[in-house]
């Protein structure tokens, strides 16, 4: 070989020599890498017990019954799919942290899946005991333990008492416990051994330092996207309100300025849909962006068939639905698995000034001023719209809608209004509730921790106050600890911890 190196202490210096080239070098490298991969497969079966090192591959792909040992750098070089998947995951430690965070923040969606049910006891205990675990109610954490134990009842029943020690019994609804006692044999079998008395809140077998320390796991964060900023300028900025810690902080902005958009939260992602970029034209946006809170990034997805603004949007049965909009009656749904929008039956009438939408049970309700009614109901299973109510109970426009239990809650409106009304879907009747402390045109409304929250809106300027409504007491309370100036944008819940 014409190139040499000379060892001088810790230094290697190349000698002056003629350059050498090998046109087959890339082929030689790939052959060597493949040999390492195959050697690992052989050594795994035969040589490894004799002490031979076989850890020159990065990880293993399991396809059916076959294990394929691979080099990460090669996968990234030849496959755009693996390049995207591995872009942010630089080590096994990072991958583990990502997976753990996903489990903690999407736990309610996972408790029936085989992957969770197959976890070993120590990992389940770590999840249930974590202060960062998010569930909407303590009943979900309770049910997850029953599901896991029942999956392999004979060998796991012995762990039930210890796991139940991490449950906050005082937060369980009495009706939930009564139903379990009547219908769940496993619960009845161990009920007397785990139910806390007045003198203890947890099972005495649970070490005090391991018990959960807070209820923060019940409270999601709220993301505000786009809207109007000072000087009536349209914004693409985004911020998050961390309810547990009472703080607001900025996150990555939208890729495009938007106002009068709608936002939906589904499977840990937030979708910013449609809207306007200019107050003075009718060029409604078809484009859609999806926010990943893990990486703090917005990404473009397939646009809608129809541009729309001031419209209703909601999530139902793993799909995103968009309904109507200003001067619009069309309906579409988006499937994240296919990244495609699909047309649905139109609403019975076109909305004059816009509308909002929310889900109750298996139906989507859309509220907005039209010539043929104000409240429509859509059953996706039947594929048909019904007119539920034709009375004028909401005024012209600017109302926000959210759902809780079997009711729609409608707040605010043009003027601006401070009214709050409830529509009972079982009786098809409206009820006037206590008014908010501030009038709000186009506020944001959402249910958080069994209370109705009102954020932002417009009242001779952007409203900064936040107030929440106690459904049982029919009372609004101003939250003086936080101010959020935001209007004509979108807001959605993020069911994960952000910082």
UniProtKB/TrEMBL annotation:
Pathway entry:
Protein modification; protein ubiquitination
Q: Which Gene Ontology molecular function entries are recorded, alphabetically?
A: actin binding
GO BP:
protein ubiquitination
Concerning PROSITE patterns, the annotation shows: BTB (PS50097)
Q: Which UniProt keywords apply?
A: Actin-binding, Kelch repeat, Repeat, Ubl conjugation pathway
SUPFAM superfamilies noted in UniProt: Galactose oxidase, central domain, POZ domain
Write out the transmembrane intervals: none
What residues does the BTB domain cover? Answer: 57-87
The cross-references to InterPro entries, in alphabetical order and at most eight, read:
BACK (IPR011705), BTB-kelch_protein (IPR017096), BTB/POZ_dom (IPR000210), Gal_Oxase/kelch_b-propeller (IPR011043), Kelch-typ_b-propeller (IPR015915), Kelch_1 (IPR006652), SKP1/BTB/POZ_sf (IPR011333)
Q: Does the keyword Repeat apply?
A: yes
User: Domain of life here?
Assistant: Eukaryota
What this chain does, per the entry, is described as: Probable substrate-specific adapter of an E3 ubiquitin-protein ligase complex which mediates the ubiquitination and subsequent proteasomal degradation of target proteins. May have a role in synapse differentiation and growth.
Protein name as catalogued: Kelch-like protein diablo
Protein's organism: Glossina palpalis gambiensis
């Amino acid at each position: 070989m014409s190139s040499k190196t000379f060892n001088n202490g810790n230094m290697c210096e190349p000698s002056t020599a003629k350059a050498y080239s090998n046109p087959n070098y890339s082929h030689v490298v790939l052959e060597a890498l493949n040999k390492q991969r195959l050697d690992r497969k052989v050594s795994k079966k035969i040589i490894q017990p004799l002490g031979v090192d076989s850890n020159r591959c990065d990880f293993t792909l399991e396809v059916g019954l076959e294990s394929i040992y691979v080099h990460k750098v090669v996968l990234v070089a030849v496959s755009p799919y693996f390049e995207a998947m591995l872009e942010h995951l630089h080590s096994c430690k990072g991958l583990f942290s990502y997976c753990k965070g996903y489990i903690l923040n999407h736990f309610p969606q996972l408790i029936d899946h085989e992957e969770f049910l197959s976890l070993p006891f120590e990992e389940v205990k770590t999840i249930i005991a974590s202060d960062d675990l998010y569930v909407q109610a303590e009943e979900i954490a309770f049910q997850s333990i029953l599901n896991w134990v029942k999956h392999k009842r004979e060998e796991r029943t012995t762990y039930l008492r210890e796991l139940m020690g991490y449950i906050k019994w005082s937060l369980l609804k009495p009706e939930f416990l009564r139903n379990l006692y009547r219908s769940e044999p496993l619960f009845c079998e161990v009920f007397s051994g785990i139910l806390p008395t007045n003198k203890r809140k947890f099972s005495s077998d649970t070490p005090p330092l391991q018990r959960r320390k807070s209820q923060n796991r019940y409270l999601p964060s709220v993301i505000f996207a786009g809207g109007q900023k000072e000087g009536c300028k349209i914004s693409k900025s985004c911020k998050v309100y961390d309810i547990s810690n009472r703080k607001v902080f900025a996150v990555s902005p939208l890729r495009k300025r938007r106002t009068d958009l709608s936002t939906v939260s589904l499977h840990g992602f937030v979708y910013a849909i449609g809207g306007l970029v200019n107050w003075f034209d009718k060029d409604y946006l078809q484009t859609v962006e999806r926010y990943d809170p893990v990486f703090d990034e917005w990404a473009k997805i397939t646009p809608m068939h129809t541009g729309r603004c001031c419209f209703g949007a909601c999530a139902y049965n793993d799909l995103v639905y968009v309904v109507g909009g200003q001067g619009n009656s069309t309906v579409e749904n988006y499937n994240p698995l296919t990244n495609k929008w699909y047309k649905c039956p139109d609403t019975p009438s076109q909305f004059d000034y816009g509308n909002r939408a929310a889900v109750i049970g298996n139906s989507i309700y859309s509220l907005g001023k039209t010539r043929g009614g104000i409240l429509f109901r859509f059953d996706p299973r039947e594929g048909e719209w019904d007119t539920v109510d034709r009375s004028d109970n909401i005024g012209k426009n600017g109302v926000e809608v959210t759902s809780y239990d079997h009711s729609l809650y409608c707040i605010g409106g043009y003027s601006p209004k401070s009214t709050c009304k409830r529509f009972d879907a079982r009786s098809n009747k409206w009820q006037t509730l206590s008014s908010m402390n501030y009038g709000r045109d186009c506020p944001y409304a959402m249910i958080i921790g069994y209370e109705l929250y009102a954020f932002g809106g417009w009242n001779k300027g952007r409203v900064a106050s936040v107030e929440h409504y106690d459904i049982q007491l029919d009372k609004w309370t101003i939250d003086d600890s936080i101010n959020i100036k935001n209007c004509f944008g979108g807001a959605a819940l993020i069911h994960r911890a952000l910082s």
